Amino acid sequence: MEEIKTILQRTRTLSGTPTKLLEKSTKTIRRFGSFDALLEKVNPTMQEYFCQRDVLAVMGDFPTLADINQAFGSGSGEKWLVPQIADLTLYTGAKNIDKYQHRALARLLSSEYYWLKLSEFLLFFHRFKMGHYGRFFGNVDPMVITCAIRDFISERNDIIAEEEQKERERLEEEERKRNPPITREEWERIKAEEEEKRK
Prior knowledge:
Layout: H1 2-13, H2 19-32, H3 35-41, H4 47-51, H5 54-59, H6 65-72, H7 76-92, H8 99-112, H9 118-129, H10 142-178, H11 184-198
Helix pairs in contact: 2-6, 6-7, 7-8, 7-9
């Protein structure tokens, strides 16, 4: 109950926020209810789901780190990233990265890539585990992760470009169906009729 009161107070303080941000914040709060519920629902086990649905991860309607910061308070994106990073270090069996480094890396990723969706981060961490961006040699190096995310952004941008191209082609096809092209003979006949009307 206390958390709901906090969220309501937070929503009231957002009244001066631009409408689009307020709508996204409200949508995120409605979708998850609380930050704890978000942590429980959107956790590292969801990585596998998005690895099979990369277009959905990138193009789907999921909150960004900025959205959860807006909805649940500053630093929420960073707090959400910590378990993702901890899961990665557990997966690799690395013992050299400590909690401070988890938080520091989460802070860096959150501040630099606040515009990425949670689903995109889940996809990134899954691909990282699968070796898409190199591998660790006994130790987890946070710099490897920060470099790898740039490669992921490039892949993400390719997915977006491909989906936008498909959408353009779909719209062009719809336009062709609504306004089918005419033959030269039809064009000449229409032009002749228009000239006849002008006389």
